[in-house]
């Protein structure tokens, strides 16, 4: 799974990326700070199953703190997009190309309206951030449309010559964009069965619907610590009720994580508060900053939004499930790590899908699965549920 971070320049994307991953990312007050995409690992929160099973987990990857399992997810921060990106403006084609493999997109918006459409600083509140929603969706749609249109006639002729089903022909054409066949099947019900019979409007509508389904977007309404943000959040939710919009202060999350790393506070990512370990170690500036975050961010919104939006991208937009491998009689691996893994699987995944996810041999030699919590035996078609602990029994 890959989550892409997108948006125009200078909206706080690099700060958001760093706050999410704690990886180094250049952040500056000018457009196109990021040229090459920043790649890192973020985490989603899952209530750990260890206490239910009477053990203490010891993850191989990610970590577990206060009963919350933090499961790694690959993240890419793409350089800022500007209007006309699909035509190559602002190096747009390169930046868009970096999103090919993304499964979901986090659109970081400067909700305070302090930068214009090009990402240049302007008087706070003088730019309407609602414009960014339409512009980014349009650029993504036109980018995908351009790729498909360039190959449409060739693919259409191939479909006709080989008498292919429309879903097979289209799925083959979009496979390089990490768009799956089931995405195509969900949006082509009322279209002509032959690609060569489609008109331009049908192609554009198809692309828009396909993009919404295959690369869903959640809005990170960033810079909520600025005074013009609150009213704009209200406006954006009213205008786009269908979108998932999360208030975000990336700077606050980064400050809290860095303070936690320095041992100044105890902070769990996504929590609605933090504990100061020793006030005597804090400078006056640090104390003032922490008090501001406590009152104006955590007290007002209940979170900084960075962890919240990552969780919603994976579990609300993509509807993925967290599945733990384990055995009825043994929950540790050969190295003694207890419940060492937690895997993220797409919705409707079966016991057999999980077996293949772990290793192809387990899938090919699958005999049965056991639900460790209940010790119930299930077959390969059994649909998994979030936080299941599964033992796979296979032949030799």
Can you describe this structure?
With 396 residues, this protein is of the alpha/beta class. Among the domains are: 152-209, no CATH class; 322-394, Ubiquitin-like (UB roll), CATH 3.10.20.30. It has helices spanning 13-21, 92-97, 130-162, 166-174, 181-187, 200-214, 229-239, 250-261, 284-301, 306-317, 351-358, 360-364; strands at residues 2-6, 38-47, 63-65, 68-77, 104-110, 217-222, 244-247, 265-266, 275-276, 321-325, 343-345, 366-371, 376-378, 389-394. Strands 1, 2, 3, 4, 5, 6 and 7 form a 7-stranded mixed sheet that branches. Strands 11-10-14-12-13 form a 5-stranded mixed sheet. The protein has a two-stranded antiparallel sheet with strand order 8-9.
Secondary-structure map:
Layout: E1 2-6, H1 13-21, E2 38-47, E3 63-65, E4 68-77, H2 92-97, E5 104-110, H3 130-162, H4 166-174, H5 181-187, H6 200-214, E6 217-222, H7 229-239, E7 244-247, H8 250-261, E8 265-266, E9 275-276, H9 284-301, H10 306-317, E10 321-325, E11 343-345, H11 351-358, H12 360-364, E12 366-371, E13 376-378, E14 389-394
Parallel strand pairs: 1-4, 1-5, 5-6, 6-7, 10-14
Antiparallel strand pairs: 2-4, 3-4, 8-9, 10-11, 12-13, 12-14
Helix pairs in contact: 1-8, 3-4, 3-6, 4-5, 5-6
Radius of gyration: 23 Å
Question: How would the global form be characterised?
Answer: flat
**Average pLDDT value?**
91
β-sheet strand percentage:
15-25%
Summarize the structure.
The protein has 396 residues and is an alpha/beta fold. Among the domains are: 58 residues, no CATH class; 73 residues, Beta-grasp domain (Ubiquitin-like (UB roll), Roll).
